[in-house]
What does this fold into?
Amino acid sequence: MFSFLTQRLYNKLIFAFVFVLLIPTSVISLYNVQTTSDTLIQKIGSEELSVLVSQANTVERRLLDIKEDLIFLSQAPPTRHYASLMSQTGDVNADVNAATRDAQIALFKTFLDRSTNQYKDIRIIDLGGQELLSVDGLGQQLNAEKNGENQAGQAYFNQAIGLASNQVYISDFNLSQNNGHYDIPYVPVLYYSMPLQVDSAIVGILVAKVILNPILKDITLHSTTPIFLVNSDGSYLLNPDPGKLYGKILNTGVTFDNERSSKDVITMFGKDQGIVSASTDYPDTLQAYIQVKPETQIGIRWLLIRNIPINTILGEVNKTQLVALSLSLLALLGGVIVAVLLTRSIVRPVLKLSAVADSVRQGNWNVTVPHTGGKDEIGHLADAFDAMLRELKTVYGSLEARVMARTAELESTNLKLTEAQRIAEEASRAKSLFLSNMSHELRTPLNVIIGYAHSMIAMPQMFNHVQVQDVHRPYLKLIEDNGHYLIGLINDILDLSKLEAGKLELLCTTVELTEIFRGVLSTATGLLKDKPLQIRPDYPEYLPLIWADAIRVRQIMLNLFSNAIKFTATGSVTLHAEATDGWVSISVIDTGIGIPDSARAMIFQRFGQVSLNKEIEGTGLGLDISKQLSQMHGGDLTFDSVEGKGSRFTFTLPIATPEQINSALPQKQTNAGLIIFDKSALDPDDIYSILLVEDEVSMRELMRRALEASGYIVVDTHDGAQVLELTLGLLPNLVILDVNLPHVSGWSLLQQLKANELTQAIPVIVYTASADRQQAMQLGAAAFIRKPASPEDILRTVRDALHVPDAIGDSFTSPLS
Ligand code: ADP
It folds into this structure.
């Protein structure tokens, strides 16, 4: 694109130069051509005119010379002598004075001999018109016998008689005649005549017949230009076309007046001399004219014209034009070359600058601005650009250095951040691990403590039926209750840490709420202990299936119930549920102490407790966890309370969509492919053998005791590696499997048991601290017990798994009941 622009600049400049050059050149050339042609016409015209002037002068001088000749002849002594003889005798011929006549003839002859063919003849006429003497141009006497004819009627005779001496009459031109016929070829002649006087008296007339041809020859000699000589009557004396001569005399009708327009005739006869260019009659001709009027003479008034064809002039003009045009073209060509060179000299540095700018734009700073070498604006521009580039380079360099420094700083900060993040993540991981380990580590001994405390009061059969002393009972109960409190606290902390880490996952499926309600109400009744409270169910028989994690729903409800019972002394705790517009809202309504307005904000805060009544247990974590669990389901947990009147805690859960209902497989289908333990194979009277796998010794001992006290045969092991072998060897009725075993994973043991034909039918209860019920069930476990569990829970689950009635073993009363 850039080169395209440059090209345009280049073209524009050339165009500008040439255009600027072309206009004046053309104007000058045109003006030159015009001026040259005008000047040329002027010049040629005046040249022709000056030739004409000299020709006219020659003619006039010749005519005057003849006059002088005649005067000389009239004054010559022989003539004077002859004239006086004429005056004395009156008849010269009759006189015997032949000598006088001969002397006269000799004079004429001598005279005519000198004037070459100028005269046709010279005569002397007496006053009567009688020719006395006549000599022809060769000096021969004419008409000697009859003394010539009478010429009294001739103009040259009549005019001459009236003249004074030394005055000469010159006739109009005529054609020479002989015996009444024109000489052929025609000879134009003039008659010069003058009186011969003796003592002031005229005695005769001297007449010379002058041939015009020698005079006219002088005009046409050496001239290539057509020349016209026109007599005053319009007859041509000279004409390039001989047929047009002597029109008036010969009566041919061809005269100057007839041939030319009146305008030309008037112009040419009106002025002494001049030039007529491009007239109507001769449009292609330049005509120079002059009048021939010898001084002192009356009779002669001729017009001499030279015709110069304008073509020749135009030829000249064309030649000039051609020269001018060639010069113009040459100038133009030179101009174009100069323009191209000049443009290149302008554009080239610009082009170089552009290239430099372009490469700077592309990030290449290692370019130098070329020296244009000029002191002109472009040179200045290049210098300025160079300075700017150097400045930019410096700035860019320092900028780069700063950017690099900043980048290095950023990188090191990033590294530190990454390290800090890594440490934080590690710390978080360590915290989670610690919490989970701690909870495991704490719950196991706690379970043992609770189990034994409870068993010592409620299961004397575990101790050879030795009853514990009454004095110890309340303390054992205290141990059990505090143990439960601690386990609840640990579970809450574990849940919170998982929520915080975003690691708490919901195992959602379709949930029948009324089923959960029944369990919760039963547990709540157990929580009442001796409180005079009424537990009231208030929900419709049929509620829609919800999409939720049943364990978590139960957890939220138990928490709300536990709080309601805790903070209500008398009255009731109601479980209300209703379906509204895609949601089921579940409320736990109590008639307890309520929550003061001032405390509303802190209710859902972690560790937030309204009263610090030490008698009322609590961690301040339950509502926080419950709200978060509700929100994870897409719902929320809110409350409404009037201090002293009671509280209403409500949480919402989504109704399962048809797609969710279709996608949720029933539990039995989940276990499809696995052989379900056939309860009909068991006899209630049988003694059941149980393989108990638990690595933690005190827990294993407690469980073994509890199971044995219930009549089961228990084989226990801490070693996971022995499990398969023992199962195959014993083929127990049930396996209780802890999955967190050293060296071997309980999950893989479960898979192996379920994969083996011989063992796959044996029900396995998975017993673990982690909440992996789904996994356990999918791998084919018969039941799932989450640690910690009381001996009663374990026994109940065992009975359920074996499908044996409560008859087997002692049934425990719940520690909560
Ligand atoms: P905890 O009950 O373990 O202290 P919770 O987060 O469950 O922790 O409850 C936080 C606090 O909210 C309680 O300590 C109590 O002050 C108040 N509270 C919760 N439920 C009720 C209720 N039903 N009636 C009155 N106060 C309640």
